[in-house]
Amino acid sequence: MSGFSTLLRKEVLRFWKVSTQTIGAPVLTAVLFLFIFGHVMEGRVRMYDSIPYTAFLVPGLVMMSVLQNAFANSSSSLIQSKITGNIIFVLLPPLAYWEFFGAYVLAAVVRGMVVGTAVLLVALPFVDMEFRHPLWVLAFAFCGSAVLGALGMVAGIWAEKIDQVASFQNFLIMPLTFLSGVFYSIHSLPAFWQELSHFNPFFYMIDGFRYGFFGVSDAHPGKSLAVVAAFLALVSGLTLAVLRSGYKLRH
Amino acid sequence: MGYDVRTAYRAARRSLGVVPQELVFDPFFTVRETLEIQSGYFGMRDNRAWIDEVMHNLDLASKADVNMRALSGGMKRRVLVAQALVHKPPVIVLDEPTAGVDVELRQALWEFIRRLNRDGHTIVLTTHYLEEAEALCERIAMLKLGRVVALDSTPNLLKRVHHLFLRLRLGGRLPEELRPLEHGSTPDAHVLRLKSYDDVEQALSSIRRAGCHIEEMELAQPNLEDAFVDVMRRS
């Protein structure tokens, strides 16, 4: 095996070995959201005139799980390795900085996809779902989880304590995800907040992902994918620059 | 080794195996998984036979499928050594490998280090135990505030110290004239630091003149610790 594929395999094995915590727990959280919000809101509102609220909610919850778990995977792996000191095992071998980046981000994508698929499978018996454009679903899931995997790397490299990563997650990732249209269509918001939502890249991830299921969305899916891809390029460029400089890893 | 660490970093890193000083490990994996992963980072394929051999040589074979968390400190230290060897590097850096280990493991590690050296590996050993450096190293560098203040073969470093030690247990008081020569005496023995063998003769005659009875006597050559103290004082 090459150094890159070994690091990718190791990162996947790392979360797989503690799957109760890394897969089971987020699936349970998402399903509780689905049942509680679904129970309270079902029959009261229909989204885009025809979609039952619970069905509308499922793609949002799936994508929220994908994004949060992709971030958690790379950030927790890096901060734990830094704190325990075993980061040395990946810094000493002949791995290029871009191989390091690729392995951590792809492992984050795998974790996000696994958790997202599990949430979807658990929800399916309770909700009638459509799958109009599966390729859009995959494209947004991949790009979104890659963005969050790279952001998790930046957080994991920057942080020196676990609570700093938790702050990154609680004060940045969580609000941006919750305010991105997981639980609502932004068309239901007042004009100011609707406008503000267009500056939240997470909105495009969830809106485009939802388009893949229902064929309707707040923004055009092509525009959403372009925004998400541009954001991925930006975050990847930043992460690669940080890795190349050796910031907080080799200094 | 001749590799630029920036432009030829892959070749440079392949040439090095590093055993860190701290007992670091990845708690998610067993000993075998840890070694297979480390081997994979270096792009080694079909390395199972060598991993088995390294584990056998370090008495780790019985712990191959045990999680790293369940190992004792000594066993974790052995795994760190094994990790540094999985890609067969020509140069091995051991950063204080015997710090805080028990006597048995220290002896085992010393023997293993000697064997690696005999097999052609260059060993760079950092240590605070000068006895360890004297026993294992052919060439020694001494550092003060990050600067190399001495770099020479062990015999040459020892030759720099121009004195010897006379250890005496007396059936009486040490003559006053010898008191200034005392260096590191213990409650039951006097140790005199002498410049040459001629001084031994003079010290013994002083003791005879004082009517003192010698119960035990030993003449010791300077060791690396003396050389180290000497180098540090001069630099």
How would you sum up this structure, described in words?
The complex is a heterodimer of chains A (251) and B (235). Chain A has 251 residues and is mostly helical. Chain A is built from 10 helices and 2 strands. Chain A has helices at 3-16, 19-41, 53-84, 88-91, 97-123, 134-158, 162-178, 191-197, 201-214, 221-245, and strands spanning 46-47, 51-52. In chain A, strands 1-2 form a two-stranded antiparallel sheet. The longest helix of chain A is centred in the first third of the chain and has 32 residues, at 53-84. The model of chain A has no long low-confidence stretch (mean pLDDT 94). Chain B is α/β, with parallel strands linked by helices and 235 residues long. Chain B folds into 2 domains: 9-137, 3-Layer(aba) Sandwich (Rossmann fold), CATH 3.40.50.300; 160-222, Alpha-Beta Plaits (2-Layer Sandwich). Helices cover 40% and strands 20% of the residues of chain B. A 3-stranded parallel sheet of chain B has the order 1-2-3. In chain B, strands 7-6-8 form a 3-stranded antiparallel sheet, with helices on one face. In chain B, strand 2 (91-95), helix 5 (103-118) and strand 3 (122-126) form a beta-alpha-beta unit. Chain A binds chain B through residues 1-3, 5-7, 9-10, 13-14, 17-18, 81, 84-86, 88-90, 92-96, and chain B through 9-11, 13-14, 16, 18, 20, 22, 24-29, 33, 37-38, 40-43, 45, 83, 87.
Summarize the model shown.
The complex is a heterodimer of chains A (251) and B (235). Chain A is 75% helix and 2% strand.
Query: What fold name stands as the CATH topology of the largest domain in chain B?
Result: Rossmann fold
CATH architect. name of the largest domain in chain B: 3-Layer(aba) Sandwich
At the fourth CATH level, what is the homologous superfamily of the largest domain in chain B?
P-loop containing nucleotide triphosphate hydrolases
Using the alpha-carbon principal axes, give the shape of chain A: globular
Count of discrete structural domains of chain B: 2
Distance between the termini of chain A: 29 Å
Question: Which structural class fits the helix and strand makeup of chain A?
Answer: mainly alpha
Uncertain stretches of chain A: none
Assembly state (oligomeric): heterodimer
One letter per element, helices H and strands E, the order of chain B comes to HEHHHEHEHEEHEEHEH
Tally of extended strands of chain A?
Answer: 2
Strand % of chain B is 15-25%
Strand order of the largest sheet of chain A: 1-2
Helix run count of chain B: 9
The main pleated sheet of chain B reads as:
3 strands, parallel
Instruction: Tell me which protein chains meet in the greatest interface and how many residues each side has.
Output: A-B, 24 and 25 residues
Mean pLDDT of chain B: 91
Strand order of the largest sheet of chain B: 1-2-3
- What's the CATH C level of the largest domain in chain B? Alpha Beta
Computed over alpha carbons, the radius of gyration of chain A is 18 Å
